[in-house]
């Protein structure tokens, strides 16, 4: 803990000037590029390395008041280095976690900063293309009933016909069902989460979303849909064998999430893209349910993994409770309400998209989960 004070005594952040001679950065600047530029500037590098130390120490245990003040002073000084303040990261990129670590390092201790996404914004025309092509094909493939067929079963069969989808789905099922040890029925949740993220990041939404959001009219289909992400490993807790333990408190869950750069980022992205609005026709403040769907799916494979609450409901929720929240009950209920009462979420998607999207009267092949759709 004394290292921060010693470092700052040698390089007082107040005497550093990292704003001069630095060109302004565009909003789409990658944080890895911004970091590289910073470490090439001596004055910027000194502050940045100090903030790395602050973040690493804070992750272990809360800093003392003096050390924390010095870290916040360093953070304030680094605000003059614009590239690190405006940089973003790419979803699912090979170096995503490193990029996110940079993003949050310069936002030291800002654990409540969830109103802005750390990920690059997609251009409006690209978002609209997602709405009309990806969402159209997903709904065409998953919502058109074929002789009363179980649509979640059909989505799984379609996934199996596409090699990448089938192999990556098998990979996460194995990772999420394999015992951690011979004598223990519990799974390796970290491997399960990693495999789930890999599946959702690499498989086209036409297949992955058809599995996650397939429409059901009976409990058998609903149970298959609920078990798609292997809840027994991805979020439920198991004490011994099949014995279940109680749900964690939602505030504790969020606190754990805030200490993990990836979870923290996916949760911030979810809140940014899934803000509900009663004044919007889509129910979303940002007018894009496609982006909300992607953000919701981004939570799967993190500590904040959501899922359907039962096999007979389209309601989704976190696996947590507000019991024992005391005077923080309102903040805890806010977390639950992000899912249970959110008009922008997938549990309200199917009916609205079916009204918005119509296909030609003849159903063309849905083996590849694709249908050319037009608006009425």
TrEMBL record:
GO biological process terms held by the UniProt record: cell surface receptor protein tyrosine kinase signaling pathway; nervous system development
Keywords of this entry: Cell membrane, Glycoprotein, GPI-anchor, Lipoprotein, Membrane, Receptor, Signal
InterPro entries according to UniProt: GDNF/GAS1 (IPR016017), GDNF_alpha (IPR037193), GDNF_rcpt (IPR003438)
Pfam families hit by this protein: GDNF
Protein name: GDNF/GAS1 domain-containing protein
GO MF annotation: an example: signaling receptor activity
Main location per the UniProt record: membrane
SMART domains: GDNF
Family: Belongs to the GDNFR family.
Residue intervals of the GDNF/GAS1 domain: 31-111, 152-233, 250-344
Source superkingdom: Eukaryota
Statement: the UniProt record of this protein carries the keyword Signal: yes
Any one Gene Ontology cellular component term annotated for this protein: external side of plasma membrane
Compartment(s): Cell membrane
Bilayer topology annotation: Lipid-anchor; GPI-anchor
């Amino acid at each position: 803990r004394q290292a921060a004070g010693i470092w700052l005594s040698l390089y007082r952040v107040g005497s550093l000037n990292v704003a001069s001679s630095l060109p302004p950065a565009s909003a789409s600047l990658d944080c890895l590029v911004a970091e590289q530029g910073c470490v090439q500037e001596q004055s910027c590098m000194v502050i940045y390395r100090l903030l790395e130390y602050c973040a690493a120490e804070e992750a272990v245990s809360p800093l003392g008041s003096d050390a924390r003040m010095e870290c916040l002073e360093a953070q304030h000084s680094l605000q003059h280095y614009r590239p690190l303040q405006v940089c973003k990261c790419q979803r699912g990129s090979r170096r995503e976690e490193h990029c996110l670590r940079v993003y949050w390092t310069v936002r030291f201790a800002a654990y409540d900063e969830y109103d802005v996404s750390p990920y690059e914004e997609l251009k409006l025309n690209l978002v609209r293309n997602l709405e009309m092509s990806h969402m159209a094909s997903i709904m065409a493939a998953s919502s058109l009933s074929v002789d009363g067929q179980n649509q979640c079963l059909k989505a799984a069969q379609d996934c199996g016909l596409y090699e990448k989808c089938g192999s990556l789905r098998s990979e996460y099922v194995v990772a999420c069902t394999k015992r951690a040890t011979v004598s223990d029925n519990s799974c390796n949740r970290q491997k399960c989460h990693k495999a789930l993220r890999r599946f959702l990041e690499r498989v086209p939404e036409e297949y992955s979303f058809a599995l996650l959001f397939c429409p059901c009219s009976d409990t058998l289909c609903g149970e298959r849909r609920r078990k798609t992400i292997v809840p027994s490993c991805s979020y439920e807790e198991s004490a011994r064998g099949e014995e279940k333990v109680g749900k964690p408190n939602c505030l504790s869950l969020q606190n754990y999430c805030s200490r993990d750069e990836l979870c923290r980022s996916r949760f911030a992205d979810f809140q940014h893209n899934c803000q509900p609005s009663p004044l919007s026709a889509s129910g979303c403040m940002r007018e894009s349910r496609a982006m909300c769907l992607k953000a919701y799916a981004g939570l799967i494979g993190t500590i904040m993994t959501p899922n359907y609450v039962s096999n007979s409901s389209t309601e989704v929720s976190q696996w947590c409770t507000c019991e024992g929240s005391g005077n923080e009950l309102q903040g805890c209920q806010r977390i639950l309400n992000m899912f249970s009462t959110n008009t922008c979420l997938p549990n309200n998607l199917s009916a609205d998209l079916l009204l918005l999207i119509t296909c030609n009267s003849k159903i063309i092949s849905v083996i590849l989960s694709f249908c050319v759709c037009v608006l009425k």
